[in-house]
Task: structure prediction
Amino acid sequence: MTSSSSDSDFFAPMRFEAEVLDCEVEGSLPAALQGAFYRSCADRRFAPLYADDTPYNSDGAVDQFRFYDGHVDFLSRYVRTERFLAERKAHRALFGRYRNRSTSDPSVRHLSHNTANTTPIVHGGMLFSMKEESLPTRMDPSTLDTLGEWNFSGKITAKTFTAHPKLDPFTGELIAFSYEAKGDCSDDIAVYVIDKNAAVTNEIWFKVPVVSSMHDMAITDRHVILPTTGMVTSPERLQRGELHWAYDPTVPAHVAIVPRNGKAKDVRWFHGTPDQAMLVHTTNAWSEGNKVILEAPVAAENFHPYFPRVDGLPNDPARYVPTMRRWTFDLDSNSDGWQEEILFGGMKVTSFTRIDDRYLTRKNRYSFMMTSDPSLPVNREFADTLAVRVSNAWYRFDHLSGSIDKFSAGDSYGVSEPQFVPRSPAAPEGDGYLIGVVNDFRTLRSELVVVDAMNLAAGAVARVKLPFRLHMQVHGWWVPWSVLPFQAR
Result:
């Protein structure tokens, strides 16, 4: 992803925006696909100021695939953040190490360092592309024009905002939180409830036991679940000019259970072990009586290769690959611990996990994941790339039977995170399609593939082909036309 990559490297910067009308389609697009699929992507346009910087510190771009009546149009635009505009004017990189303002060029230290490169969502008719160190960046959902950072009409008073808010499909509410909410290294957390019209209806502020990366969250119909991690920071790190985060293997996991409509006094903290302190993305959560159940991939050690350990030791490959786990918190118990169950025989997975979003806050049967499967055929020419840099499969996990179904786009392909789209609003859980971008290292081109979510092994039912490669995706978001404030064409 750095400018030192050759032009033939799939991970080299793109540096262009595109619009493709009536994309080439191989196969038959299902009638259920009527809406827009957005992708937040990372693309570093200039060589970084520091060689040890992370790919997460790349410019944000948003891609849009419009599906209508068997046709697909494609649009891609960079997010015009203050950072993007300053560097475009200077024709070089100006911003320093990941989330360390003191390492940036003095001319831009006063500007927002927001990259807006992690997650797109649409709420209240507005499109946001988000990065957790900053407020959301609002964009036009039709044209992808950048409209600027958004604080929900002044009601978000925190300086940061999660990249992973949760949209409750039953109430239409958006639940969000901010960590380091009063600035770098602050131990302040803010939780927000935002109604379907994008009005903030509740705000809760409280303190966290350890200042750490808190990338994701989960919700039930009554609670917000906020896990800390072993990825920590300090003013001293920033003063030394280091990356914002480093992994501390001695830091235990802490989980806050927050009533959605409660107050700070209602927050309850549970405490775990260091072996539970690397939870990056959550799968789902639900309530059973006064028990809160969370499912998520969790690792026993740092699986972020871009961030160092505080002790300078190398990471342990036997411990940094996640397993799927179920955590049960008993709110009637006086214990401040939780019960853990390892799912799917402890098989190794990744942290990129999704569900049928209609079941968010309810017990789900199926989850989907992009992952690496060494048993799948691999083109020898691209074996190193597929083994080290990307995932090559989508999995469907059946949490009831324990079975797994898998999809491969081909022996020279890497995959991005999948998105589930139901066959109809009333279809049973999991009855629909997985869509997502796959990248062919043989041709240096990208495609969006459509797969029957209940029969991944059957392969793609349709492929939307593009005449070029795409930015590297972080997360995506599907929105039906009934929710969008514009027409398909």
